[in-house]
Amino acid sequence: MEPEGSAPAPPIFRAVASSTRPLYQLLKAINFTNKVHIDITENGLRFAADHARVMQGVAHWSKSLFTTYTTNIPSGPAQDSTSAEDSEKEDEPLPPTFQISLPALLETLQIFGAADAAARQAKADADPYRSNLRNYRSDAFSNHTLGMSGTCSLSYAQEGEPFSIVLDESGVSTTCNLTTYVPETPDDIPFDIEDLSFKIITSARWLLDALTELAPTSPEKLTIAASKREPYLRLTSSGGPLGSSSVDFDKGRDLLETFSVRQRWVQTFKFDIIKSASEAMRIASKVSLRGDGQGVLSMQFMVEVEGSGPSFLDFRFVPYAVCEDEGEEDEEDEGEEGAEMET
Amino acid sequence: MVILNFTLSEEGVAVLHDALACMFKFSDDVCLEARMDKLTLTTLNISKSAYVCFSFAANRFFSRYSFEGTPQYRDRFFCQLYIRSLLTIFRARQAGGDQARDRDASIDRCDVAIDDGLGKKSRLVARVSFRNGITASHSLPYEVKPPTHAKFNRDEAGNRWSISSRTLRQLMDHFGPGIELLDINTDEEARVVNFTCFTEKVQKRGAVSNEAVLKKPLHTNVAVEMDEFDDVEVQDKLHIIISVKDFRAILQHAQMTSGALTTSYSNPGRPMKLSYSADGVLCEFILMTVGEKDAMTQKHKNPRANNAAKAARPELDSESHRASSVAANENQQEAPASTTTSRPQQQETPVRPRQSAFEIRPQPMPPPTTARSDSLFVDQAEDDEQWEPINPDADEEEEETARLEWNITNEPNPSSIRIGSYLSRQAEPQDVPPDRLASGLEPTQRLSEVRRFGLFSP
Q: What family classification does the UniProt entry report for this protein (chain B) (predicted)?
């Protein structure tokens, strides 16, 4: 792409953060794919990960996570000259979008603290008393704990350029250029907010606990049922070799902060895809579960980030087609007959 | 209909988890046996050298316990389950953490029910209620299988001592990793009891493979004054050798109960029993001890040679006995259980796939841990009387209570009372006649005919 003038144009995006920890935490929650889509907007970065079109995870890096945040989003024609005939779109700036390798980005954000770790190791070597017992514990005065782990500046010059991350820490500067890929622009999984069947807000920890209860039988499927009467919210695992389990949430005792069910909603999902949201459940404080008329499940997690407002993680899941449930019941019946033979 | 129904408190769940965790060190699955007055969990390790039994008293351990006999299970119900799946159900949950009290996620209570009957799924259902209002229910499939209990002859075991399990656990800390055997012995004046740990694991060194060295040439001896024991009565200079791994697993659990651990044993090559109890739970372990001679000489006999001997024998013997077995078949088609058959042909029946190992139902079998079983094996093949007919009625009774017993003929100590059976094996079969049903079967039985002897799961 030709530069617009003799002087280099300001980069599309440039931001500086003093701590990579919240950035890393948020991204790690959607770490279930190789490539992640990044949209750059005025208010922050949006990361969208997609798994086989049945699961979608979106993380936001809000502007408030950075000490400086500047964007120079080009107007329509500059970004895409072929769409010149689209006169309406000329006025609306299209957010720059591209794909990037998520594992590589996560790796990069982890470089921070490397010098810290080296310093700690040196200290441990010098002091044999704390040798192997304590060096896993972070020091109360380490840069990491104090949140002064240097600076991290992110920039994206223009379309086709690498996404560049420069980490400065105690005199050591690390520059990482991550290759950007042409976006696939997948549509979001459709979720109809107008046609909600239920909405439940609860502590994310309870949801994680429930999944932990269900996981040991290594189930294949997870059925989520929300109803007005008991059981209000029930998660059932099935298809595992060691039996089946279910977890019920009682309506009382402040367990469910918000509970509104318009109609009984039962959908079955692949257990593993719901489980890939467990990192989000771990770091989030609250979760909002919503199901729409088509059976799509939306989980929104509220993550409290120190020093800035809450961040949100958004997951959407597509359920199994209903006809598969019958096959599963057949299997169950067979299992029952087998058990009776034994008795 | 609900056969078994009980409720555990949070502490009860923890105790049950500890017991299961201890059993998991011995075996992968556990037999559950419920009676009116108690719930028993038993397991036997794969080499059948160690047996673990935990009995939970119905009125003391459980908050609520009810057992209702059905026509099928009149006075007891039994089943077998995977320990691994039980462990995850009965594990302790983290309490509220840094959150407030009302967000407590610890266990409030745990209801377990076994609901069985016609047209019902046979499942063990455990409902765990948490203090925060979440209820998790797990349903596990189980196998209906009668438990195997090891026999231990209390009268025979003249040696015994008991000691605080904590003290004993502390002693074990002195023994390093990688050791295999523990020798419990007394000195000449019988003033101390020695716990000696050693290993015989041999490592080949260098290209010349006949140069062998001990892998862990560490020999640790802890001498404990007699005063440390509460009740001690041990024969002088008696060496009793058990596996350290088993012993450690027991002590690991025993120290949590903080009670006194009692052991009783007789001679090398005979089982040893360890037991302790706490708050309505009785824990019993029966370990096979290593015969003195085995430990010293035969333990490391080349296993390949043994296998070869085993593999070769059936062919050889089945040929030599073919004529007699065919004749027997013709004559006794009607009464299949009352014929004289040879040992190798028994081996071909599907009922007893693991001849070399310690057997459960046909009682007199080679002992578990030691390699000596092979010599025994050959001897018995010539002993036709061993396979005499047995009383089928007696077996019906026995069928559901398979008892495990270590071989009596294997008495290594000639001075013992069993010298007679040691010298002439013909005398021995009369000792335990009713247990020997399965061994009397014709080799050519149809499966359907054998089935009524309860050799397969009903």
A: Belongs to the rad9 family.
